[in-house]
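Weekly sync, protein design subgroup
Attendees: M.S., D.O., the rotation student, P.L. (late)

Item 1: inverse folding check
M.S. brought a backbone from last month's batch and wanted to see whether the design step gives back something sensible before we order anything. D.O. pointed out we never logged the input encoding, so this time it goes straight into the notes. Structure tokens as presented (381 positions):
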């Protein structure tokens, strides 16, 4: 019910794809583009991604075509409560453990967790991940997907005796994944030249001021155009065109699916890109992936490169199960070890199957084999 007392109807989904390795696990997305097909492909990918982490989690995904943009705090709360009223009966810490995704952050998870607790009369922390630190969340979960993607790219670069230091880097998006990707890249000496949101992109040759960007995006819920206005002449805001036209050595698409096309890949290659790491889920079209592979660009597919988020969610489940809370350092160290493990598993599998350096093939086969072996052992699908 909106603030004018009108009933609004939205459609919600939860696709429980595979639970051979552990409870179904995957995020919830609130975005007007959400439909069954989106959730199914994300759940399919999630199953193999989760397997690749080496942790005991199955695969699923969910969401709704609800658009949180322009909604009041109370409208968002009421939607989250309604959504959980139905979803609640399908999930549980041993059954299915949703998390956040596009449009679902800590605020939304809080309203959903509150409603679940009210309905079940149980403080079942392990039913949702991505929770706030004061109510069962894990340190590093907010940073995990972005940090993890950067660790993965760092591992790929190392295979060619390269690193982030002094490299020009473009990140698309300016949401959770993008912001913490930029933060980790900057800490490793990389220079973030450009980022974007759905209204356009900004270019700042001297490097984007991350504290100001975080203030605008996280605290004021503003746009990258607002950042450009505050920053003045050193920044160019482009409402049209492609962020991928900006010359860079490393590209990290971190907004949404299909945002980097074959044409964009050709432009990046022409401009000398050496590594591409998918922070988002399937941001590069199949054409773009082919072009990167043909041109020997180091390419980290999302199901490997962005698995740090779900891996840290699994660490959150471990902490919840033991009613413990780990320090930032302990948790980040675990994340870093997991990302190195994923990288090595992909690289070794690619070698084993005669395609050295092909992380797409390595990730697909390694993820699939782990699920298939569990399904065979359990005798069920
Ligand atoms: P957020 O909602 O925090 O941010 C998404 C960002 O992408 C925003 O800047 C948004 O801009 C932009 N964006 C969304 N749709 C479009 C579009 N059609 N065109 C251009 N820009 C767009 O989401 P997250 O950062 O959490 O997620 C980003 C991606 O990473 C998704 O693909 C998600 O599935 C994936 N992912 C996220 C994980 C996580 O832990 N958060 C884990 C693994 C994968 P605007 O604000 O203008 O809409």
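Designed sequence read out in the meeting:
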């Amino acid at each position: 019910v909106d603030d004018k007392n009108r009933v609004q109807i939205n459609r919600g989904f939860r696709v429980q794809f595979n639970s051979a390795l552990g409870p179904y696990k995957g995020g919830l997305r609130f975005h007007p583009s959400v439909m069954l097909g989106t959730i199914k492909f994300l759940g399919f990918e999630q199953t193999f991604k989760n397997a690749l982490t080496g942790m005991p989690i199955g695969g699923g995904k969910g969401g709704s075509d609800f658009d949180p943009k322009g909604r009041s705090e109370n409208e968002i709360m009421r939607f989250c409560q309604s959504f959980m009223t139905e979803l609640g009966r399908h999930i549980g810490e041993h059954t299915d453990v949703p998390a956040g995704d596009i449009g679902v952050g800590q605020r939304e998870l809080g309203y959903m967790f509150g409603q679940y607790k009210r309905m079940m009369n149980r403080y079942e922390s392990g039913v949702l991940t991505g929770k706030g630190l004061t109510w069962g969340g894990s340190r590093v979960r907010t940073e995990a997907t972005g940090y993890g993607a950067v660790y993965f790219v760092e591992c790929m670069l190392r295979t060619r005796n390269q690193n982030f230091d002094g490299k020009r880097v473009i990140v698309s998006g300016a949401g959770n994944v993008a912001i913490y990707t930029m933060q980790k890249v900057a800490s490793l000496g990389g220079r973030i030249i450009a980022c974007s949101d759905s209204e356009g992109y900004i270019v700042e040759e001297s490097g984007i001021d991350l504290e100001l960007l975080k203030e605008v995006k996280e605290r004021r819920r503003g746009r990258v155009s607002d950042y450009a206005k505050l920053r003045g002449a050193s920044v160019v805001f482009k409402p049209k065109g492609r962020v991928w036209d900006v010359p860079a050595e490393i590209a990290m698409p971190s907004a949404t699916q299909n945002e980097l096309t074959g044409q964009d890949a050709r432009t990046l290659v022409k401009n000398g890109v050496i590594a591409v790491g998918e922070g988002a889920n399937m941001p590069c079209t199949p054409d773009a992936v082919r072009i990167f592979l043909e041109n020997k660009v180091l390419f980290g597919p999302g199901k490997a490169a962005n698995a740090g988020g779900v891996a840290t969610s699994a660490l959150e489940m471990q902490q919840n199960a033991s009613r413990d809370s780990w320090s930032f350092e302990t948790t980040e160290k675990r994340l870093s070890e997991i990302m190195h493990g994923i990288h090595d598993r992909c690289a070794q599998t690619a070698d084993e199957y005669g395609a050295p350096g092909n992380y797409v093939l390595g990730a697909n086969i390694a993820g699939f084999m782990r699920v298939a072996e569990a399904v065979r052992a359990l005798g069920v699908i």
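Discussion: The chain has a mean pLDDT of 97. The pocket of NDP is lined by residues 100-103, 145, 173-178, 197-199, 254-256, 259, 279-281, 306, 309 (CB under 6 Å).
Action: P.L. to compare against the previous round before Friday.
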